[in-house]
Design a protein that fits this description.
By secondary structure, this protein is α+β, with helices and mostly antiparallel strands. It has five helices and nine strands; from the N terminus they run βααβββαβαβαβββ. The strands form two sheets. A seven-stranded mixed beta sheet has the order 1-2-3-4-5-9-6, sandwiched between helices.
Length: 151
C-alpha cells in the first residue's frame, strides 16, 4: 500500500469514498478547498482517503478519513491517520485534532489508539448541520466528539 498526496488540479477527487465518512457533498467540497487530500492505493487503486485542513498556524485537523468497504479492517484507516499525524508534525503544527460522531464507536477507538484524547463534545452538531438524521451502529449520530493530540 502507498499513501500519497492527491493532486486536486489533475486528479479526480474520490468523492464516493469521502461520502462514506461525511454524507454532505457540500461540506466535503468546502474543506477540500482549504485542505490537503491524501489517498491510500493498493495496486494503483484508491482504497482510502484522508483530508488534513489547517485550523490556525499552530493547529490542523483531520476532517475526513474513509476506507473502501472491501478494504476495511486491514489497518488502512490507521495508516492514513498516522500519516496525517506525521505530515502535520513535519509541517510544523503543534496540535492535530479530529472529530467524530457519538455513534462512531470504531472510529473513537481507532483515534485513541493513534494517540488522540477526547477534548470536548459539541452537543447536537449533527442535528444542527445535517438535514437528514444519521444512524450508525443503531445509534443516532447527534454529538461531535472532538479529540486532540499534541505534536
Amino acid at each position: 500500500m502507498v499513501i500519497r498526496r492527491l493532486n486536486q488540479n489533475d486528479e479526480i477527487v474520490p468523492m464516493s469514498l469521502l461520502l462514506l465518512a461525511d454524507p454532505s457533498e457540500e461540506m466535503i467540497r468546502g474543506y477540500l478547498n482549504k485542505g490537503e487530500c491524501f489517498v491510500a492505493e493498493v495496486e494503483n487503486k484508491i482504497v482510502g482517503v484522508c483530508v488534513l485542513s489547517p485550523i490556525s498556524s499552530e493547529s490542523t485537523e483531520i476532517v475526513n478519513v474513509a476506507v473502501s468497504e472491501n478494504y476495511q479492517g486491514k489497518g488502512i484507516g490507521k495508516q492514513l491517520v498516522l500519516h496525517a499525524i506525521q505530515t502535520a508534525r513535519f509541517l510544523g503544527f503543534k496540535t492535530i485534532e479530529i472529530g467524530t460522531g457519538n455513534s462512531s464507536i470504531g472510529q473513537l477507538a481507532l483515534y485513541q489508539k493513534c494517540g488522540f484524547q477526547i477534548e470536548c463534545i459539541d452537543k447536537d452538531y449533527f442535528i444542527k448541520n445535517y438535514p437528514e438524521e444519521i444512524y450508525e451502529n443503531g445509534i443516532q449520530c447527534r454529538d461531535m466528539i472532538r479529540l486532540k493530540q499534541e505534536l
